[in-house]
Amino acid sequence: MLHGRTAICYAGSIKRFRIHARDDILRSVENQRADEDVETVAWINTLLDRFWLTMEPVIAAMVIEQADVYLQMYCPSVLESIKLSTFTLGNKAPRVESVRCFQRTDDDIVLMDWRVGFLPNDLSDLTGAQAADKVNPKVVLSIRLGKGMVGAAMPIMVEDMAFRGHLRLRFKLMRTFPYLKTVDVMFMEPPYIDYKLKPVGGERFGFDIAHFPGLPTLVKDIMTSVLGPMMYRPNVFSLDIETLMAAAAAGERAIGVLKLTVRRGKGLKNAELMGSSDPYCKISISGRGELARTKVVPSTLNPIWDETHYLIVQSLTDRLELEVYDDNKMKKDTPLGDAHFDLSVLENDPEFEEMYPLVLKNGREQGEINFGCSFYPVIEQQQAIEEGLDPFASNKGVLRITVHQAKELDASKSMVGAYNPYAVMRLNGKEVHKTRRLKRTNNAIWEETFETLVYDLDKAQLQLEVKDERDLTADVVVGTWQGKARHVVDMTTKQDNWFQLANAASGRARISAVWMAITTDLDMQHEGANKPPIGVIRLHVQEAKRLKNVENVGGGKSDPYVQVLLANVRRARTSVVEDDLDPIWDEVLYVPVHNERETLVLEVMDFNAHTKDKCIGTCLLKVSDLSAAPGSTISPWANLSLGKQTGRGVLNYAATFYPIIDTNAPVWEEACDCFIKEPLMDMLTVVIKSKEAESEDDPIYKFDIKVTEIIHALSNSTTISSEGEWYSSAQGVQIRLAFTFTPVDYEIDPTESALNVGVLAVDVKGAENLPAADKSGTSDPYAVFTLNGEKVHKTKVVKKKLNPVFDEKFTTPIHKLKGDLRVEVFDWNQVNQDKRLGSGVVNFAQLEPGMSLPQQVLLNNGDAGAVLVNLLFRPMFISKMTHRAST
User: Fold this and answer.
1) Where does the SMP-LTD domain lie (predicted)?
2) What are phi and psi of 160, to 5 degrees?
3) 382 φ, ψ to 5°?
C-alpha cells in the first residue's frame, strides 16, 4: 500500500516537472526566434482588405475638409484661392508585409520593425474582377489665378502614388491615460516613393514631368535632404504623446477673470516741449495684443484714471503689462514708460495693490503707476458637473465660443456662384470676434475659438452674420442667426449645434459654446454701469495763501477758484475771487464718492475770460483718510504743487465724510381708482405717512402732481409702461407711480367746478359812517370776518373813529358758490362786553377769477355804515378745506 501511494505521488511530481520545464524551454526558444524571425501578419492584411472600401471614402472626405482649412489659411498672395478638389487613395488597401517584435526590452518599452507597402499598381495579388474595377490614387489641387470673374482655375494633379518602407517603431508606455508616453519613428533604409505629377493640362492633356531627365533624381535628393536628418537611421523622429494630449485638453482656456483697477500715475515723464503730456494707459497680458486702455487725461503728469477693467486670464504664469503713452493728435504716441506685473503673485494672495515704477526704454525709472488687481477663478461646465456643482450657479463668467463652419450658403447673392465668406459674432450687439476670410467657397470651415466675458448669461444674446467680402462694393450679408447664449450652451451639450441661417434661401452654421462660471462672488459691472455711491464728502473750502501768480500779461494778479476733480471729471467748484493771491472763498461743496480707494484732486485754477484757465497748483485728498472715521473733520493747510514744482501756495479746507444710509425703499405694488372731475384744474396728491400717524395732517412726504401733466405724458407715450415714472416731492424724495386714464362722458355741475374753488385774498381798507357807541360821539371799532360760521380774520382796533382805516390783508380758501363770508363790526370796550355795531355779507356774484373787485359791504342794510374791501380770487386745488383765523 505504501509503495503504491509513493509511486503515484512520484508520477504526478515528474509530470508537473516535465510540463513546467517544457513551457520554460519553449518560451526561451520562442523569444530567441522572435528576435530573429518575422511575422507575415496576414490577419491584419485581411482586415485591411475588408474594411478599406468603407474606410477610404471617409478618410478622403476628412482629408479634403481639414486640408481646405490650412490651404486657405496659408494661400500665397499671388493666388486668389487654392483648394483640394479631389483626393482618393484608390480601392486597393495598403499592406503590412512583415512585423518583427523585440522581446529583450524594458517592461515599459515596445520595439517593433514594420515593413509596409502601398502599391496600388501592383496587380499580382488581385483577381481579374478586382483588377477590372481598380481605382488608382489621385489628388487634384485646384489653384486660381487672377481676381473675381477674370480669374482662371488651374488643376495640379498627382496620381498613381506608391510607397514602400522599412520602419522601426519604439513605444514607451505609462500607467495613466493615454498610456503612450512617446512614439519614436525611424526609417531603417530610404523608402521607395513613386508618383505621376501633371501640373498643367489635367488628366486628359497633362504631361508627367517626373519623366524629365534629372528631375526624379533631384526630387529624391531633396526628399533625402529633408527626411534624412529627421528620421533616416540613426536619426529618430519622436512624438511626445503625453504632452500633445495635455496641450490639446488644456488649450488656451481661461482659468479666471482678473479685475484690474488702474488708479493713477505720479511724476510721469513730460514728452511735450510746451505744456504737459496727455497720458493714457494700454493694458495687455504677455504681449498678446491690447486688451483695454484707459481714457486720456489732458495736460497733467499726475493723471487720475480710476478705471476698472475685467480681463480673461489663461495662466497665472503670464505677465500683466501696463504701458503709459502720451496721446499725440498729429504723430505717433510717445511712450512714457511701462510696468510689468507677474500674475503668479496672485496664487498666494488673490488681491494686490501697489505703486509700481514705470521703466523707460533706456532702463531708467521715471514716474509711478498705482493699480490694484484681484483674481477670480472660473470652473468649466463639465468639471462642475463632475464635482457635483451647479455649472449655472453664477450668471457671471467666461463664454468660450467656437465658430466651426457654415454649409450650403445661398449662392443666389453672388454673381459667380461662390463667396469669399467670413463670419462676425456679436454679443448683445457688440462685435466680439471676426473670423478670417476664405476664398471662393460656399462651404466655409473656420474652426476659430475665442473667449469673452459675460455679465449675465441668462440675458446674453448672440448674433452671427456670415458675410461675403467684396473689393469694389460693400460686403454683403449672406445669412444671419441670433439666439440666446444659454441656448447655444445647452445645444452644445446635446451635440445639436447646427443652426439655420435667416434671410437666406439656404445655409446653416455650426456654433458651439462652453460656459465657465466664476466660482466666487464678483460684483462685475459692464462699461457704463453706474456705481452706487458709498457716501458724500462735505468740503468747506476756506482760503488760500501765497498763491503763485500765473498772470504773465498786464502785471495783474491771478483770479483764483478751486475745482474738485474725481476720476478727472469736475464734480464741484467755487466762485472766482478776482485779483487776489490770498483769496477767501468760505464756500461749502458736496462730492459723492463711490469707493474708499478714490482720490479727490483739489485744483486751484486761474480764471481767464479769453484763454484756457491755468492751473496754479493741486493737492490730493484720499477718501480712505476720511471714511475710517465718518463724521469727523480734518482741516489741513495743504501744500500746492504742479508736477515736480513746489511752493505754489497753500490751501486751507475742512473735509468730512458722511456715509449713505440704507433707506430700505418701500415697494407697495398696489392699485386704486379715482375720478377726475376737471383734468385742467385738478391736482393729484399722494401722501406718505407713518403707520402710527393719526391723521393726514402729519405726512412724512407729500407729492402734488398736476393731472394735466399725467395726461400729457400718457398721450405722448407710444407704449404703456407698467413701471411708471418717478415723481419728486418738495424734499427731493421720489416715488414711482404708473397711471392709466379713461375719459367719462359727463358734464360737471358748476357748483363742483374747480374754477369756483380757490383762495380769496381780502384787502380790508376800512369802514365809513359807523354809528357812535361812546358818550363822546365816537367808537373804537374793529372788524371780524367769518366764513361759513368760522372766524378767519380779526382786524386791529382803531380808537375814537367813525371812519376807521384798517389797511389789512388776509387770505382764505373758499368755494365761491357755496361760501358765506360775513363781516361784523364791534365797538371795543375795556370794561364791559364789546358792542356789536352791525354786520353784512360779502357778495361773490360779480367776482371773476384773477380780477380785482372793490366792494362796499353794507352793515345792517346800510343803517350802520359800510366796510370797504378789495377782493381777488385765484382758482386752485385745495386738498382740504381747513380754515384758521389769520392775523
Assistant:
1) 37-242
2) 55, 45
3) -65, -40
Q: Among the listed ranges 96-100, 116-120, 693-697, 771-775, which one has the minimum average pLDDT value? A: 693-697
Which single residue is written with the C-alpha cell 457688440? 430
Q: How many other C-beta atoms lie within 10 A of the C-beta of residue 480?
A: 17
CATH superfamily of 392-518: C2 domain (2.60.40.150)
What grid cell was written down for 324? 503709459
pLDDT digits (tens, 9 = 90+) for 791-812: 899 999 998 888 999 999 999 8
Predicted structure pTM score: 0.54
Phi first, then psi, for residue 423 (nearest 5°) are -125, 145
Q: Helices (DSSP H) in 168-271: which residue ranges?
A: 202-205, 215-231, 241-250
Which part of the chain has CATH 2.60.40.150? 256-379, 392-518, 535-657, 750-875
Which range (666-675, 753-762, 838-847) has the least confidence? 666-675
- Determine the pLDDT at residue 883: 41
Is residue 334 a contact partner of residue 328, using CB atoms and an 8 Å limit? Answer: yes
Where are the strands (E) in 245-396, listed by range? Answer: 256-266, 279-285, 290-293, 304-313, 319-326, 334-342, 351-359, 365-380
* Length of the chain in terms of residues written: 887
Check whether domain 256-379 has CATH 2.60.40.150, yes or no: yes
Q: What is the CA radius of gyration of the chain?
A: 48
State the pairing for strand pair 304-313/319-326: unpaired
> In terms of Cα–Cα distance, which of 296, 287, 294, 303 is closest to 261?
294
Q: How far apart are CA 164 and CA 191, in angstroms?
A: 6
Find where cell 380785482 sits: 852
Nearest to 736 by CA among 673, 668, 679: 668
399 contacts: CB under 8 Å, gap ≥ 6:
427, 451, 452, 453, 454, 457, 460, 485, 489, 513, 514, 515, 516
CATH number assigned to the domain covering 535-657? 2.60.40.150
Closest to 253 measured CA to CA, from 457, 398, 350: 398
Q: Round to whole Å and give the CA distance between 865 and 869.
A: 13
Cβ atoms of 96 and 116 closer than 8 Å? yes
Dihedral of CA 863/864/868/871: which sign?
Answer: negative
For residue 85, how far is the Cα from the chain centroid?
44
Closest CA to 450 of 381, 396, 392, 401: 401
407 in Cβ contact with 499 (< 8 Å) = no
- E-strand ranges in 408-454 read 421-427, 430-434, 444-454
Cα separation values, 879 from 232, 737, 886, Å: 104, 19, 19
List the grid coordinates of 414. 453672388
Alpha helices, H only, 558-647: 624-627
Taking the CA atoms of 487, 491, 492 and 494 in sequence, report the sign of the dihedral they define.
positive
Q: What angle do CA 466, 471, 475 make, to 5 degrees?
A: 30
pLDDT at 481: 93
CATH for the 750-875 domain, from 3.20.20.60, 3.40.50.970, 2.60.120.40, 2.60.40.150: 2.60.40.150
Gap between the Cα atoms of 498 and 513, Å rounded:
12
Of 675, 681, 683, 678, nearest to 747 by C-alpha is 678
